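1st attempt posting a full record on here, be nice pls
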Amino acid sequence: MEISRRRLLQGAIATSVLAVGDRVAAAGPARVFVVKATDRARAMAACFDAAQFTACDGRAVAIKANFNSGDAFPASTHPATLRALLGTLKSRGATQLTLAERSGMGDTRNVLTSTGAADVVQDAGAQLVVLDEVERERMRRARCRPCAARRIASEAT
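the predicted structure (as tokens):
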């Protein structure tokens, strides 16, 4: 039985939620933070501050942004927003950052290059995993192993 990339990411997210589930459940209903600012880095930091976010302290963090096509913001994540997110996570103690991405409407690597995301990831010292390039066999093995998503991300780079 094969596992789709979507199911792999869903499993990784579910595993993450299970790992911090007691903290999430104890927090009650989800809170939404909106910050209006022209400086994306300051706005991102303000959101993290408001949420008292510390979950990445000392951990490797994988990010799935929005790069479905090569179209510019708002169709894709703005490069400055991605830069701000990576910088904020790093300043909050993330030990390793990985952008895992699959574009639905084009060649993912070309989309990441044309939108500037690949440069942002490289400049931040993060890793880039193009999910289209991850071997299917490794995706299949992931269905039964909770830490497989992290291993696939680290092996793919």
